[in-house]
Automatic annotation (TrEMBL), chain A:
Biological process annotations from GO: glycine decarboxylation via glycine cleavage system; protein lipoylation
Subunit architecture: The glycine cleavage system is composed of four proteins: P, T, L and H.
Protein's name in the database: Glycine cleavage system H protein
InterPro entries noted in UniProt: 2-oxoA_DH_lipoyl-BS, Biotin_lipoyl, GCV_H, GCV_H/Fam206, GCV_H_sub, Single_hybrid_motif
Superkingdom: Bacteria
Length: 123, 370
């Protein structure tokens, strides 16, 4: 079970054929106080780099992209009542959705934790 | 990007903002703090609970002198400026020949002069407009050696009185020249948050020292432009460029109250024929408060629909109100939908979402009227 990262600041973690996706700590810090998260519907087909969810801070709405191809199997309903969970625990309890992957080998195109850390430091 | 940033103007408090850890963004040609480490929501709630200090030095400060200054300025604004006593301030707008709004502004009778505060993004246009239209007897001085700070919130008066006891006597929309911590300031009891508070014009050379003194008080936190926007939206106050602009008249903008009785009778300001006709017969559309029913904010340019799915208007400012603890917005709707309680739909990301026309403000004004 390894965690991978996209250049759009999503993290993805595969376990037993299901990948959990959220936004990174760097992303939540950049966005500031999150006040609303619009999650996709279960069953929605996702295309890598296509729209998957929307996260809203006081000031602005930002798109969250699908890090890989696949299909939504579960969304984090707790974010409806407590969107601030994304600020408090972005890379654990503040996950956005779970998806099956069309092609697990796509994971290789994403960054590992060390590469993502370098990527963020270069921004 | 680097070039753009180097061309940005800096206020007298720039170094202090950076020291405080502000996120700096370009705004109207200036590098301005959008938020500090406390964050937009925390800054907003702090201002409503205690006191917030804002750097609004990007705004334009102008002094008009000359015997005819009042009569000449009245040709450009629909407000009754002649009736303003020394030490009184009024909100007004520069109107154009077609009745639309070139900018909104604050006008103070400072005794021997008129003191104006105009929007940062409109400053150059406003000055050209005034120079072109104010008659020979009026001189216009751009005050560029002063910063402008705003101290806002229920504790603002208590805090500022520690440095200048006489501010306690100022009432809402009043002005006085007062020494604060030894510096000659122009103090107006006004603001852009709906709270009690002050706007303080202070010499650039003293601005940082004054800001540090105020921030050292327990009640005061530095507040950025992000919270300034959410505070003013909850207070139902217009943002020029969003809620009013060169396509909207004061009547459409629900600003009838800025057109005073004598001016309604006499006219004599730019666009008076259009504006007075709208006052008498009504306008086709109006700025209203909009409360989305769910939790999803509706941002500016969101379409507003009636029950039949027809477009009846557009959101001009929308976001999340931390005090309201939910989404809030304002926008223009066709006049038959402007009554509070009217149900409408907002098209957010291709989905119609229910909302209601409501009275403004979303957060009650708490001005000090004495």
């Amino acid at each position: 079970m390894t965690k991978k990262f996209s250049q759009e600041h999503e993290w993805i973690e595969l376990e037993d054929g299901v990948a959990t996706v959220g936004i990174t700590d760097y992303a939540q810090q950049s966005l500031g106080d999150i006040v609303y998260v619009e999650l996709p519907e279960v069953g929605k087909k996702l295309t890598k780099d296509g729209d998957a969810a929307v996260v809203e801070s006081v000031k602005a709405a930002s798109d969250v992209y699908a890090p890989l191809d696949g299909e939504i199997v579960e969304v984090n309903e707790e974010l409806d009542d407590n969107p601030a969970l994304v600020n408090e625990a972005p890379e654990s309890d503040g996950w956005f959705f779970r998806m099956t992957l069309t092609d697990e080998s796509q994971l290789d195109e994403l960054m590992d934790e060390a590469a993502y850390k370098d990527f963020v430091e270069g921004l | 990007m680097a070039d753009q940033e180097s061309e940005l103007l800096k206020t007298a408090l720039y170094d202090l903002h950076v020291e405080l850890g502000a996120k700096m963004v370009p705004f109207a040609g200036y590098a301005m703090p959008v938020q500090y480490p406390l964050g937009v929501k925390g800054e907003h709630l702090h201002t409503r609970a205690k006191a917030g200090l804002f750097d609004v030095s990007h705004m334009g400060q102008v002094r008009l002198t000359g015997e005819n200054r009042v009569a000449e300025l009245e040709k450009l604004v629909p407000g009754d400026i002649a009736i303003l006593k020394p030490g009184r301030t009024r909100y007004s707008a520069f109107t154009q020949d077609d009745g639309t709004i070139l900018d909104d502004l604050m006008i103070t009778n400072a005794g021997d002069s008129l003191f104006l505060v105009i929007n940062a993004a409109c400053k150059d246009d406003d000055i050209v407009h005034m120079r072109a239209n104010l008659g020979d007897g009026v001189s216009l001085e751009e005050i560029d050696d002063r910063a402008l700070l705003a101290l806002q919130g229920p504790d603002a008066a208590k805090v500022l009185a520690r440095f200048a006891p006489s501010v306690a006597d100022l009432k809402f929309m009043s002005f006085a020249e007062i020494d604060i911590a030894g510096s000659p300031c122009f103090v107006t009891r006004s603001g852009y948050t709906g709270e009690d508070g002050f706007e303080i014009s202070v010499p650039n050379a003293d601005a940082e020292a004054l800001a540090r003194k105020l921030l050292a008080e327990d009640e005061v936190e530095a507040i950025g432009l992000g919270a300034r926007d959410s505070l003013r939206l909850e207070a139902g106050l217009c943002l020029y460029g969003n809620d009013i602009d060169t396509t909207t008249t004061p009547v459409e903008g629900d600003l009838n109250w800025i057109i005073n009785k004598r001016r309604r009778a006499e006219g004599g300001f730019k666009g008076a024929d259009v504006i007075l006709d709208q006052l008498e017969h009504g306008a086709d559309r109006k700025r209203v408060g909009i409360k989305p029913e769910g939790k999803a904010p509706a941002r500016e340019h969101t379409q507003i629909l009636n029950a039949d799915g027809e477009e009846i208007g557009e959101i001009t400012s929308g976001g999340f109100g931390p005090t309201v603890d939910g989404p809030i917005a304002m926008g223009y709707v066709a006049i038959e939908f402007a009554e509070p309680g009217t149900k409408v739909d907002l098209m957010v990301r291709g989905k119609a979402r229910p909302a209601e026309v409501v009275e403004l403000p979303f957060a009650p004004h708490r001005y000090f009227r004495g």
